[in-house]
Amino acid sequence: MTNTYLEKVLNSVKEKNSHEPEFIQAVDEVLSTLEKVIDKHPEYEKIAMLERLVEPERIISFRVPWTDDKNQVQVNRGYRVQFNGVLGPYKGGLRFHPSVNQSIMKFLGFEQVFKNALTCLPIGGGKGGSDFDPKGKSDDEIMRFCQSFMNELQRHIGADVDVPAGDIGVGSREIGYLFGQYRKIRNLYEAGVLTGKGLDYGGSLARKEATGYGLIYFMREMLKANGETLKGKTVIISGSGNVAIYACEKAQEYGANVVAMSDSNGCIYAPNGIKLDAIKEIKEEKRLRISEYLKYDSSAKYIETVDRPAIWSIKADVALPCATQNEIDLESAKKLVENGVIAIGEGANMPTNKEAIDYFLNHKVLLAPAKAANAGGVATSALEMSQNSMRYFWSFDEVNEKLDGIMTNIFEQCQKAAQEYGFGTNYVAGANIAAFRKIAKAMRSQGII
Known about the structure:
Helices cover about 45% and strands about 15% of the residues. With about 450 residues, the protein is of the alpha/beta class. The strands form two sheets. It has a seven-stranded mixed sheet with strand order 9-8-7-6-10-11-12, with helices on both faces. The chain has a five-stranded mixed sheet with strand order 1-2-4-3-5, with helices on both faces.
């Protein structure tokens, strides 16, 4: 990095947030691709464009007390990071997971600002959650936690203010409990205050499938632009939640052979192709570990995770990390390249660390960055908001068609920006530049706020 303004801002971020490695990583990944844009706009330094961009507009941290089934009081910490609202109401999911801390909330919120800008829909960026772990909790415990969480969160959200959705650990069950408590406290039916709702009270068809489907739509366009197709490709997908399941479903529809999926304990390898109905039963209905898959497919093999995710050692043409942040490190990247991978599609948020990203790009592997490739979920959440505003709903096919168009447009933005600034097929840079230009233009138009 030779631009002194960029270097100054990045060093300041590292100094002020030295205890927040995930946030520093996210900022570094973006700023390192903006040098040519900043060189073209030296006036940005005078108006502190980057300093304002990397500083959240608001961070809310709060206590969440709740009572477990043994009548013992438990206390967790809740967060909402309202990072940047220049393009619309803050929009971003809630994550319930023991790893949640301020660094992770800020990195997710920062990424969300760029992701939402790429959708070209009127939504700003935010993120929230808690270090509460839903695993092993009863429905009653989860309900009581969600109600306590919403007792505080409701002060800071609204259909035109901040619209949370689900993320890891927050599905339709949790959204239902959160929405019910919000409705009770506020004494109004504000359907647009949360997205990812059940279909019987304001949710959108295709929302559950949206992130996974959207990832494959982006991959389809990226591969097509480079003379490739998903048909006949061997695909491995980390994770086995909503994103992974519906990425698998859509990839199979396009003729790909998905041979591996995983959870935090290990992965299953099915050389004849994953039986998706079995995965759905195990994960969506029974909520069991993925090793149970062996009962459904005698030809499959289970590989336990030890030091790093075992799935990245499986030979494949296309790898789709759909589990969590930093799941692909440099060693895993080297193994994937050695095994002939031609494309990576980030279904999770920041699943590939910077060293691995650089390695892929240096070895001409096509990389679909998370802020572009997994934007289908938030895009469909925004479509849910639109339907709520109209007090109307669209069919599955109508929503899916809009999603396909949005993801195609996102790829085209990334491709155009990458080519305009001399990055070729580096869609990581393309996504960052395309989103940044839109955000910066709006920030400049609205003054120093």
